[in-house]
Amino acid sequence: PNKHDCPSRHCHYFFEVRVQELFESQMARHGDSASLFSLLSTMETNDFSKAIIPYPEFTCRSSKSDTHPSAPSVVTTTTTTTTATARLWKRLLQPHPIAVVDRLLGHLRNCNRPLSWKVDMSDELKKLLRQEEQQYRVS
Length: 139
Hints:
Elements: H1 9-24, H2 33-42, E1 58-68, E2 71-84, H3 85-93, H4 99-110, H5 115-138
Antiparallel strand pairs: 1-2
């Protein structure tokens, strides 16, 4: 897929909405490969109470750009790009040197929210940390 165009954005949006509904209703929970193998080993062949839904190979993400850096409330464009889902997971799995932040990011990584939300929240937390570190250095 073209990095700057997302032809499957409607399918991805549908996937995100449905997964979010399942997470919010607590009918679904996030799991990694280890929990997947554990789940598969406990499932019987006629067990229809559980389903394994893998993430799509590519994920569409929207980003907004501001008209003026001094006026962040003025949004001019929204760009949707396609990114390999594995690349997003790789970003989420990077350890942080501060132990408490690393634990917080681990909880974020394992929470029952869509992948795009996790990546956005992780990016926002890291941005806040950089701002706090800059402020600390200036003071």
